[in-house]
Design goal:
mainly alpha
Length: about 30
């Protein structure tokens, strides 16, 4: 259980980071 959580959490962080980055680039355009 802990292994799955520790694997999903970084993935989720990366996903939000990518979404945030695309949001920023769309604002700058």
């Amino acid at each position: 259980m802990l292994f799955i959580f520790s694997w999903l959490l970084p993935l989720n962080l990366v996903n939000t980071n990518i979404e945030f980055h695309t949001l920023l680039t769309s604002i700058h355009k």
